[in-house]
Amino acid sequence: MAVMDFFQTYFITPIQINGNYNLINSIIYALIALIFLYGIYKILDKQKIEIDFKFFLAVLPFVFLGSFARSLVDFDKLPYSFWTVSPGIYLTIAGIFLAVLALSIFLQKTINIWYWQISLIIGSIILVGLVSYVFLLIKLHNLLFGGAVIGLAILASAILYFIFKKLKLAWAQGLSFIMFPAHMLDASSTFIAVDFLNAVEKHPLPVLVNTLANTAAIMYILKLIVLIPVAYILYKDIEDKNMRNFFIITIAVLGLAEGLRNLISILIV
């Protein structure tokens, strides 16, 4: 009974009531995610797929798909279930992407079109209907807040780009840099949503930091405290380019997914 109560308290109930994350389920979900990501990497490695910016483009429509769908669940426009909220929605979108990827690899061998182009096209086609639906839900009076999110993300990213370039930091150039604008979007959307629209942060660490700082603007600093050493370590310690790029894209996708979800929620709230 103690085990069942523990599982119910920390895993089942938070999903059932769309409640906050807690330290226990956050750690377990992170470990499961690492195992799952390792499995995906091994599949890609076995298929000899080069993980580069083209691969990121192949993934991109599915990041939008997951973010848009998750935001619609928040507003009761899509049904709420394990498969449409975290962590289930990550499994749902990953499953769809892997199916499309398998089809894309097969078609690449038969019709001589690059897999990433096929994946980008198929993902975009799937996304069209959802984007059209979301567009109809956008509230005009929220466009200012949405514009502020995008503007702040671009400004923060541009500042970082010129600083990294001026300092000639090789570990923050090229594909490695995509992590930064992705997470600047997340930081910007969190800042606007929490400080100006009375939104509530659900992840334990940001909740603590935001409370101590009395503003979600601290998210910019928190993101950089994590991203800068991570980018440096990936560049210095992982010699396998494919593996390094896989981690880079994974980290970028995590920030972009949350940032897009928050942005859409701001526009349609």
Write the layout of secondary structure elements.
Blueprint: H1 2-16, H2 23-46, H3 53-74, H4 88-111, H5 115-137, H6 143-166, H7 179-197, H8 204-213, H9 218-237, H10 241-268
Explain this structure to me?
The chain is mainly alpha-helical and 269 residues long. 78% of the residues lie in helices and 0% in strands. The protein has helices at residues 2-16, 23-46, 53-74, 88-111, 115-137, 143-166, 179-197, 204-213, 218-237, 241-268. The model has no long low-confidence stretch (mean pLDDT 89).
Task: Please tally the helical runs, counting DSSP H or I stretches of 4 or more residues.
Answer: 10
The share of residues in extended strands comes to under 5%
Unreliable spans: none
Number of strands: 0
Helix content: over 70%
Overall pLDDT metric: 89
Element string (H = helix, E = strand): HHHHHHHHHH
Spatial separation of the terminal alpha carbons: 41 Å
Structural class: mainly alpha
Largest sheet, in brief, is:
none
Give the assembly state of these chains: single chain
Round the Cα radius of gyration to an integer and report it: 19 Å
Based on Cα principal axes, name the global outline. Answer: globular
